[in-house]
């Protein structure tokens, strides 16, 4: 019954002139190989400093200045690590401070921002849109321009040289609120209605329905917050002078080889570099899938 | 209490803890950053000095030098970062295997979770004049050693390069996701019209990515405007002020010279300049996009 439709001759696509086509093929080949080379080259370049840091940290002082520089250590030594950890400065305490501050900021920051994001996404209240717009617009401002005002403010509040001054300012993150709100907007209302009919209170709606469904965003933000807090340098440098309260990023600047570099100091500086690089790398590896997803939600929906 | 009232009350309850901290540590400092440019501090007590700080700043050669340096750095860094991240990301999307793509995304992101403090110290070693790796590689090819960080001509570009090496991760991840999210029909249509490879990338992929490019360009620019850590560890603003940036100048005036009012005026300039650049970028992209 059904006849095979016949295609008129002039509609059949023909290869464009063969000569042109082959040139295009050649250019494509060159192009894709060029970008592949660029990709490999950049991967090498961006990993190399890390490799160099780890490698040098296992060298003996003098070896770091050998020419040609060795791309491998024949006799790795832990001397530099011993030097860092047994220095007169409380290096372990600094690491513990960093860990404590980063974990606290991550946990409580997420809770606060998840509560606020929930309210902006799913509650109606007067002033909501204006407040949200205000929060959003501060994302476009460079944090550095708040350094001195925040410094004076915390000085007047007598917060300098406390853990509070490292924790409190990190808790309220406009970016986190924005991301969580975007995520919670996509949750179906029926879920909440159903739970409400079943008698769930407001807190339970948030804790048992909204939060679990926002897990990918929370995991991404958690990783992001932990890494950013761990790596924060300028703020603690400004507000912490007490040796015992310093986070590792600020503390290491006092160690040998960080400020001034003498003959034997590079391996020591690299060892301290490795010590402060490891925790964020571990966290990143644990949550990398979420992390990638979370980063893109913010960018593509925003 | 009726439903709407209750709803409103709970909205406030959920938002208040965040809002209090946001007000104290974000909004108030932002407003203060404008006011503080007109104050000078004596023994923890503010004194109103009007336009004095701003006058001083505007007549300061170092300020203008740091504006120039900051803009040069931001221009070079933002352009190079967006272009490189885009090129690498588009190549990543050509891999058919999903695990491969994710692995590459992670691999390119990993260097950016390492703290800038650690990174800066490695690079001081790599850039070293006598036994640094770069000069060694140059000597193998027969080129005389360059004092990368000690020469006013090369110091700022060296910092750009160093920050590029660790600074592409976010851009790559966002671009990969953006390319993969593009509707495939468009590419099918383009294939029928004979656009493949380069043509496809230039005429279809990149124009469709404009929103993501704008996002990455703006966020990269904002971060670059605050260049501080690499300057602090590698050059201290030198040689002869060639790497003095607005952020570093702010820090130096506030915490080393203890001229808080003056530093606040520089900080305000940093804020306004960032906003101006963001507006320029938005305008520029809007004029480019025509769909």
Number of domains of chain A: 1
**Regarding CATH, which class of the largest domain in chain B?**
Mainly Alpha
| CATH homologous superfamily heading of the largest domain in chain B | MetI-like
This entry's quaternary arrangement is heterodimer
Percent in strands of chain B: under 5%
- CATH topology of chain A: the name is MetI-like fold
Order of helices and strands of chain B: HEEHHHHHHHHHHHHH
Globally, the shape of chain B reads globular
Give the radius of gyration of chain B.
24 Å
Describe the global form of chain A: globular
* Mean pLDDT, all residues of chain A: 85
CATH superfamily of chain A: MetI-like
Query: Portion of residues in helices of chain B?
Result: over 70%
The N- and C-terminal alpha carbons of chain B lie at a distance of: 50 Å
Q: Any idea of the CATH class of chain A?
A: Mainly Alpha
The number of helices of chain A is 13
Rg of chain A, Cα atoms, Å: 27 Å
Helix-and-strand structural type of chain B: mainly alpha
In short:
The complex is a heterodimer of chains A (302) and B (291). In chain A, 67% of the residues lie in helices and 0% in strands.
